[in-house]
Amino acid sequence: MSGEGTFKALVVEQVDGKTVAEIKQLTVNDLPQEDVLIKVDYSTVNYKEGLGFAGKNRIFRKFPMVPGLDLSGTVLESKSPDYKPGDQVILNGWSVGERYWGGYAQMARIKSDFLIPLPKGMDTKKAMAIGTVGYTAMLCVMTLEEAGITPESGPIIVTGAAGGVGSNAVAILAKLGYDVTALTAPGQESTHEFLKDIGAKSFAGGQEWSEMSRPLETQKWMGAVDTVGSIVLSRVLSEMNYGGCVAGCGLAAGFDLPTTVMPFILRGVSLRGVDSVWCPTPRRKAAWERLVTDIPDSALAKINKVIKLEEVPQYTKEILAGNVHGHLVVDVNA
Predict the structure, then answer these.
(1) Per-position b or e across 139-148, b if 16+ CB within 10 A of its CB
(2) What is the pTM (predicted TM-score) of this model?
(3) Dist. CA 61–CA 84, nearest whole Å
(4) Which CATH number is associated with domain 132-273?
């Protein structure tokens, strides 16, 4: 803590129509009146925060706002029967950092319904090294498994593989024995060694990924994790093997989907949406329990970079510019 009775927080406000972020000293009395008070250890930086800090897509729904859609830490006070002082907890999603104050502070008050217990075998730093991106990747893998896609089924492609969700998906799938192809954007060839280190077997790319595909292309993939959307997802669908499944969770290239019904009615392909924000608590807990073992610590060490709270605004710009590979963890007490 910095100062008696105060703590550090990154507060976003609107000034003359512009989004302005500033480190401020707050007191517990400044926090929203929710039922669990948490001493925050770590948070993360994600693409959504990049949009918010840039004033795009109306990510922040009210001001002032403490962003940060993730946090891990220790309960200090609780009015909920589900948590007691000393419990370690994780928060992801639920519009925290958008509608509710989030993790970019040394203290937070959070609705108990938004929390889950930290799984045994995981500490708060590893939890945020995984973060929403790793948790979302795990949900995508679970979705493929539920569609009957096993390591023996055939190759898997991960789009946006150098990003947070993509790199975690590569690492998890490789750990589980899948044959993973990583798709990266033009100019990201420098990330191939990193992706190979965390489990990618081969790489895809080229001009065709920025062009409209034919309704059906040569069959290549039994499964896919798509973080990109738009034309890229359209090509993935056209290249799926008969009976294949795509787990779609992102829209980095856009929310449109210029495709046809052909992959679905002629090859039996399925496109299954994956949502991490409003995911029901039992499924959320199941994903986090698997993340204790299903993503290697060695991969997390390569995927993650730890930054200070003061550095968040600059890194949100870098994320939007496509200059951040992997995932950023925020040590709010550094």
Answers:
(1) bbbbbbeebe
(2) 0.94
(3) 30
(4) 3.40.50.720
What residue has token string 């738009």?
230
**Domain boundaries defined on the chain:** 7-118+300-331, 132-273
- Reduced to 3 states, what is the DSSP secondary structure of residue 64? coil
What are the mean pLDDT values of the chain's consecutive 10-residue runs (334 residues total)? 74 92 96 97 95 91 96 98 98 96 98 98 98 97 98 98 95 98 89 96 94 97 98 98 98 94 98 97 98 96 96 94 91 97
Amino acid residing at 334: A
Region class of 178: left (phi > 0), else alpha (psi between -120 and 50), else beta: beta
Instruction: Report residue 85: phi and psi, to 5°.
Output: -55, 135
7-118+300-331: which CATH topology?
Quinone Oxidoreductase; Chain A, domain 1 (3.90.180)
- Residue 41 has which token pair? 């250890």
